[in-house]
Model the fold of this input.
Amino acid sequence: MRTIFFICLNLVVFSSFAQTDSSPIEKELIRLCRNKEISACEKLAAFYVKNENWDNALLVGEALCSKDIKIGCTIAGMSLLSKKKSHQGVRLLNSTCDKFEPYACRSLGRLMKDAGKKDLSHLYFRRSCYFGLNEVCGDLQKGKKLLSSIAQDLLKRFPEDCSDTKSMNCQEKLDLVNKCTSPLSKEDCELLPGVLSIFFRAKMIQAEARVHLNNILMAERKLKQDPKINSFSFDLENVLSKNTPSPLYYYVFGFMKACSGSKKATSLELYPEAYAHLSQEVKSQIKSEFSRYKSKDCYDSKWGLEAYAIGSLDPLKPSKLDIWKINHDGNLMHLRQGLPVEF
Done:
């Protein structure tokens, strides 16, 4: 699929570029993009945006977007707006924002602000913040109420009714929002889907915590069943020796520092580059949680273990952590709820 993508990019995009004198930067980005470096293609599209070359930005953006590279969809949407194709541009940016791409949400926030739609603009900026664009967070008016009291009451029930997002209760609540029926107002129905996207993204990220802890447990059981080892381990590097790390993690997972001693206790120690997106404040809060135990609180590795996954789901409340734990028996516990403040 990647090969097909770059063949199409070469044939459709580069052959369509206006024949103008290219700058050294543009030539190098084109060369790297042709050599199958996706990041170079993204930088090339951004280069055209910066230089307001909307025809070329649209071509590269659409090529990236066609392969579900979301920043490409955002660039294509921005280019359509700049080419006065507002309906197409807004539609593409909306669909991309709904896929949690923060720059698309920010673009829509600016657009709604210019149109005088203050509440909708605030919500798009808020979504951009929660979807990972931290630079937007500081400009948000904290505690701003967007919804009616009726809609706020409905929102408060979502964590319980949608603890299982596929449950009947959850589907009924979503049907009420989708149909926009009384007692919800027209304004509520315009805003609620965007507010709920913050909730469902957080729920999706919470699933990551459960995956990490189950992976640790499976690896630990293999160590315990190995007759040459016959023990659990609090050395995360040893436990995950066959693990292929992801480029980005939302949760820090592993063992209490007191249990691991001088060994690497957490994924933050093991894969620091995967947490570059987290603020120092969040990292500090998480490290503090992993340092709460004393050695006397730890299991003897011959008999048991406890592993934790700790993350921050609310950029406006970085000290509000979401904490999960699993033990050697496979008991998974949600120790602290860290959903965003609206919920």
Notes: The two ends are 40 Å apart (CA to CA).
